[in-house]
Amino acid sequence: MKYSAFSRRQLLSMLWWQQPRYKDRDAIIADGSIRSGKTVSMTVGYILWSMSCFDKQSFAICGKTIESLRRNVILHLREWLPGDFIIAEKRNENRLIIQTADGRENSYHLFGGRDESSYMLIQGMTLAGVMFDEVALMPRSFVEQACARCSVPGSKYWFNCNPHSPEHWFYKEWVKNHKKKNALHLHFTMDDNLALDPKIKARYESMYTGVFYQRYIKGLWVLAEGIIYQAFNKETSVVPTEPRPYSKYIVSMDYGIQNPTAMLLFGLCDGIWYQVDEFYHSGRDTGRQKTDEEYYDDLCELVGDLPVRELIIDPSASSFIALVRKHKRFRVRKANNDVLDGIQHTATMIQEQRLLVNDCCEHTIQEYGLYSWQEKSTGGADKPIKENDHAMDATRYFVNTTKAWKVKDDYVPLLERQRQRGGYAIR
Ligand SMILES: Nc1ncnc2c1ncn2[C@@H]1O[C@H](COP(=O)(O)OP(=O)(O)OP(=O)(O)O)[C@@H](O)[C@H]1O
Ligand SMILES: [Mg+2]
Fold it and tell me: CA–CA separation, 316 vs 269, rounded Å?
């Protein structure tokens, strides 16, 4: 890799195992802000350590999924590592073989903590070390199983992640307990990545609010509490309902039988998504449940003669999806229902005023003011209170499924763009 200088913290996370002060530690934990250079420095360090201290041994490199691991780590190894390593990938075995010129050779098995097959495969292994990229996104059972496989003398665990809730098992078990676990704990912030362009850093800082700012920018393990969309306010997020030259429309729907149904009509105008209009019905509040046919009529009434082709809807609404397909007017797109990602991306769009709401959408505006995090312990997972959340669910489906939150290329660093074009594939 054509490195910019490594920061002190990056160097330490790479070379701690050589330092008299830290070399007897059993593990390293690098947590903190996004884009702070954790993955790069830890991966380089892990390979240097394993290649220097071991020969003919097996190691594990774990990501959230094998796919994300390939994208974030493996694809870049050639670029990151010094040229004297020879890397061969056995793709069908999810394995890398790394050699040095003087004949040392180790094997690196790739695992996805969320892939069921990984869990089965790691069970039978004997490892000399394991690296977890984004450990807080993996199930505890997988991480414990992988650690338990490290029976070779001198083996070490390498963890990195962005912070989550202080109730998260990894925080309680490892971060808080790092001394007892004989682990070196390094807290990263974006200042530890000297290669980060100040413009990009400023953009990241302006993207996040509330708990996401505390975690992703400050790198702190804080609880998600209070109102979820803190950046939503009537002055900056709500606009008068007036005709605009929308270039594209999409409807997103949260379907309920007992629970309320919300259908939101979104329109794109000059790069900004507006919530143009809404339909909202609560069987419970009105004392009248509607049939699927009636809801379909409501959908048609909401869109009128606008050129709406696409309906995003929760995949569980199977009867309604079948009905919409039968009528052949709308193309059904099953919603991406990842709650936290959806909330985070929606929060960013609101913060950047790329998602605005017409003032006729009263239910939605009301929900924005009420939608809150659960306060009681939820076992470390952030959860919204499941009330006043129907328009909020439909909004999140829209943002996450269309990827409306993604910005154009100008903010993507050059290196990243080259990678996305596949410039650094390992052969
Ligand atoms: N010393 C360096 N020289 C050049 N580029 C670097 C250096 N350190 C980090 N980078 C680049 O900065 C970006 C962020 O680094 P990295 O992915 O390691 O951060 P991270 O802390 O793991 O981020 P996240 O928490 O988002 O996963 C990457 O594009 C990486 O290639
Ligand atoms: Mg990373």
Answer: 31
The ligand with the least distance to the CA atom of 76 is: 1
Closest approach atom of ligand 1 to CA 6: 1
Confirm or reject: Cβ of 151 under 6 Å from ligand 1.
Answer: no
Ligand 1 mutation target, pool 73, 79, 193, most atoms within 8 A of CB: 193
pLDDT digits (tens, 9 = 90+) for 373-412: 998 766 777 899 998 899 999 999 999 999 998 876 444 4
Q: What mean pLDDT is predicted for residues 323-335?
A: 97
Residue nearest (by alpha carbon) to ligand 1 atom 7: 195
Of the candidates 349, 342, 347, 350, which has an alpha carbon nearest to the alpha carbon of residue 234?
A: 350
Question: Does 300 contact ligand 1 (Cβ within 6 A)?
Answer: no
All domains in the chain, ordered by first residue: 8-211 (3.40.50.300), 234-420 (3.30.420.280)
User: Is the pLDDT assigned to residue 415 strictly greater than 50?
Assistant: no
Query: DSSP 3-state assignment of 273?
Result: strand
Residue 193 CB–ligand 1 contact under 6 Å: yes
What residues have CB less than 8 Å from 255, skipping those under 6 apart? 261, 295, 313, 314, 316, 317, 320
What's the rounded mean pLDDT across residues 243-260? 94
pLDDT at 419: 45
Q: What percentage of the chain reaches a pLDDT higher than 90?
A: 82
Amino acid 130 reads V
Task: Work out the mean pLDDT of the chain and round it to a whole number.
Answer: 91
